[in-house]
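Give me structure tokens for this 319-residue protein.
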Amino acid sequence: MIDVTIENFEAEVVAASMSTPVLVDFWAPWCGPCKSLGPILEKLEADYAGRFKLVKINSDDEQQLAGAFGIRSIPTCILMMNGQPVDGFMGALPEGKVREFLDKHVPGEDELQSEADAEEAEALIEAGDTDAALARLQEALAINPANDDARFDYVKLLIGTGQLAEAQAALAPALAQIPLQLRFEALAQWLGALQFEAEDARGAWAADRFDAQIAQNKRDFDTRFAKSRVLMARGEWVPAMDELLEIIMRDKKWADDAARKAYVAILELLTPPKPKAASDATPGKTAGGIEIAGKSAAVQDPQAELVSRYRRKLSMALN
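Here you go.
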């Protein structure tokens, strides 16, 4: 349990909630129900062994924080996740009811272990130990098959190392989700391009052979699309998008939007991942909406700029 003020709110609540749920207990020394709820919360923090973090805010001393959260009575508890309030309750609930509240949101031990394996895999990928990373990700999915982040990283790594059959099997559960996540559809497009290159005779064609055939008929969309898939399989993402754009500009709906879907998939694959501690906070505010001093400046990296530019090209082609 940590006492929080406006000075350490950003670090102890907002930043901390990016990785671990934070339960914020608004209380006051004169509040009788607060005195009965406080020991229950502290006991549960120990029982849950790091699965959530408890912080206490004295609403009398920290009126700015209490006002920002719209606190009207105490005790009031607010659960913060990923920098945002997601749920809460008022009053001195009994222990069983507080457990029910926590269990709706706080990850189970299996989920935490799965996430830990996935995080270890990220470090192994950065260190270049692909085999160990694959083993950790496979373990993460065995513990928690619903860990979509681990599944995405696992399939992406399998594709990147040429293990296409394994990638297809691991990707199948994600493709059955409703709604289908764009990131998994993007992996399916990449996988399909690699399979096309391996199985179709045109997979061995050089670019000039494609270009010679296209020169005879600018609307030979099948050849253009085949060329884009080969380029995609070879990691030549920008030329692949340029070829797909030629199809879209001439026939937006060709082959059930095949060109547009492949183009969007490449954009998704090229989009830099958001930093885990990033948030959607408004400049001048924390992720929780608390006013802070100073302004932040966003610097767009070259990869993000490329994605942004090609999104604009697609928008213009579709309009």
